[in-house]
């Protein structure tokens, strides 16, 4: 028998009992839909968690100077004696060695005094490099502009203020954009306002003001950076990135190094585990419904073999081979489950699209999910069709013909 | 063409043993038109099934064209039924949900023959030969018993078998349709097809060239009609 003839005969026999065929594929449809939905929602969910974590700055690592005696330096100490972390050459070295790391930006952070309307405030002065600082710190300019290359090169006396409740407190809700403020007795022009950045900086003072790194270096006399801020490419690689970083520091500075790498939140790992647990549960349910669906198809195929016993005898009498009979029934069960699977893929994608819209999780459709759906349905078809097909093929023609 | 030596068939039904055929010796040559008669349960159908390679003898030897059938594999038996033997049954045994045309195509499909177009042409040709081309698109339930049997004969002949086996082909038909079927069979035999016909109707048997009588699984008479 030719392959296309198997399909021809299968479609004919499926159209005889359309409703029964439809009922029998529902199990597979639901099973495949559950797999697809579970995977899409699971992937979307963990993607959303990653995004949220990244937005909160959890994808960042920092290199500090190791505190003496195992304690973080007291704020007074930093105030008077900021620690120097690394030179530009160190940063180049780290960049080369750590593949899991994305943006790297060194910066200077130290407390300075701001005088406004006759009052003195201690604020954090952040000397940043552009353009890396924008991505790493999450700078979002909502008024004015950010630093230009010109500002950096000419060491312009300009600053950008982070808008928070502290800026509201000091400036009374109105940041003096375009005006000069007095910092350490010198005038700096406020050229921009940024939204709340992605994380806090370890230095006394509540208000954060950003300066071109060169400006701050000039004003304070530091040539090097106090901290190196790093961002991992993918948040799930954060422990790998930390490992690479520690190795690189060890090689660069030897042991014991004066530098240390910041801890990252263990909750990242936990969030990932919770998210994958959810996926595992959904896939578990999917496997159960696929099994039930497979049993449904097997049941229908057994019925079909019993019903068509006489036809099987007739087919054998007019020359059908054992294998042909077997393949006919197998084709039928595979086509049934493929139909079910196709419906399931559509249903699964449709439902997960709706759910993602409803709960605000990103809808991430991957081709492999669809391939998985097809693969699963063919597998169910083969597994549940084999036994009935074998039964059909092994019927004795004379016995089969005697059936009425 | 067909040679049976001491062929017996025993059916076991639990502890019960049924001897359907006892030591049948039989030889049928190419071009013969043989009828097998006998009362119900005399083993006529069993003999036909064995000759048609649908069933294997319990004892004895069956040679088809000089080859021992018991040495053939399952697939080779299918091949024999597909290419060399045509079957016609009392209850027509057409596929009830397929059209007449598809029923005629099936033996070619199972034999892996031809394109869909070729098969369709052959099927139509066969339908013309039995005289009901207008029924091509009907299903078996939509046509009369006589027409169904014509389709069954056309189907049995579609792969041009040398041997046609008919198990009570007129048993379910009125006398007019019966006559028509018998005349088709006679015509086929005239053009060279070997035919073995099982019947319990002596009038029909009388129209063949040779009558074999069975009783309780034994051959009791074998007469050649002039």
Basic shape of chain A: elongated
Number of strands of chain A: 10
Q: Biggest sheet of chain A: strands, sense, closure? A: 6 strands, mixed, barrel
SS class of chain B:
alpha/beta
User: Could you tell me the strand content of chain B as a percent range?
Assistant: 25-35%
Main sheet of chain B, how many strands, which sense, barrel? 6 strands, mixed
| Helicity level of chain B | 25-40%
End-to-end gap of chain A: 27 Å
What is the CA-atom radius of gyration of chain A, in angstroms? 34 Å
Share of residues in strands of chain A: 15-25%
* Greatest contact between two chains: A-B, 26 and 29 residues
Distance N terminus to C terminus of chain B? 21 Å
Q: How many distinct beta strands of chain B?
A: 10
- Count of alpha and pi helical runs of chain A: 14
Q: For the residues shown, what is the average pLDDT of chain B? A: 91
Oligomer: heterodimer
Shape of chain B: globular
Q: Strand sequence of the main sheet of chain B, in spatial order? A: 6-7-8-3-9-10
Secondary-structure element string of chain B: EEEHEEHEHHHEHEHEE
Q: Please write the string of helix (H) and strand (E) elements of chain A.
A: HHEHHEEHEHEHEEEHEHEHHHHH
Radius of gyration of chain B in whole Å, from Cα?
17 Å
How is the topology of this model organized?
The complex is a heterodimer of chains A (404) and B (226).
Chain A: H1 3-16, H2 18-55, E1 60-65, H3 75-80, H4 88-97, E2 101-116, E3 119-128, H5 132-137, E4 141-144, H6 149-153, E5 158-162, H7 165-171, E6 180-183, E7 186-194, E8 208-212, H8 213-220, E9 227-232, H9 238-253, E10 259-261, H10 267-307, H11 309-317, H12 322-359, H13 367-393, H14 397-402
Parallel strand pairs in A: 3-8, 5-7
Antiparallel strand pairs in A: 1-9, 1-10, 2-3, 2-6, 2-9, 4-7, 5-8, 6-7
Helix pairs in contact in A: 1-12, 2-10, 2-12, 2-13, 4-9, 10-11, 10-12, 10-13, 12-13
Chain B: E1 2-13, E2 16-28, E3 33-37, H1 44-51, E4 59-64, E5 67-68, H2 74-83, E6 85-88, H3 100-110, H4 116-129, H5 145-157, E7 163-167, H6 175-190, E8 194-198, H7 202-205, E9 210-215, E10 218-224
Parallel strand pairs in B: 3-8, 3-9, 6-7, 7-8
Antiparallel strand pairs in B: 1-2, 1-4, 4-5, 9-10
